[in-house]
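Tutorial handout. Part one gives the primary structure; part two gives the three-dimensional structure as C-alpha cells.
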Amino acid sequence: MLPDAAGAEDVLQDSFVRLWRKQYPIGSEKEAEALLARTVRNASLNERRRARSVPLDRDLVDDGPDTTDKEKAYAEMHRQIEQCLTETQRYILEEKEYGGRTLEDIARELKMEPAAVRMQLSRARKTLRETLKNRLENDR
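Part two.
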C-alpha cells in the first residue's frame, strides 16, 4: 500500500506501539491477527493521505524572485480561509497544518471524536480547493 519498504516498516512499528499502549483485551491469536491487520491497513491509508498533495495551478507556482504574486496568493487564500470556513474548521486546519498537532490531540481539546475532527478537516480542505479552483477559472 505504501511506495517504499521503510515507510511500510515505520507504519507497522507504529501500529504495534499503538496497540501495545491500548492493551486491547484479545481472546485469541486470530483476533490479535485481525486487529493488527486492520490497524496497519488504516495506518497505511492515513499515511497515503498525508503524502498526497494538492496539485497547484501553474499560476500560483513561484517561478522567481517576484514575491508579490506569491504574497497576493497567500493573502487571497488567508481571506478565503476567514470567509469560507467555520470557526471550528479554521481552528482544526491551523492546529493541524501549522501547529503540527495530531487529530487526536485536537479532538481531545475540542471534546470531539477524532473521526469528526478528520471530517471537519477534510471539508475545510475541500472548500478551499473548490474556492481556489473557482478563483483560478474566474481569473482566466
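Part three, for discussion. Residues 114-139 form the longest helix (26 residues). The two ends are 38 Å apart (CA to CA).
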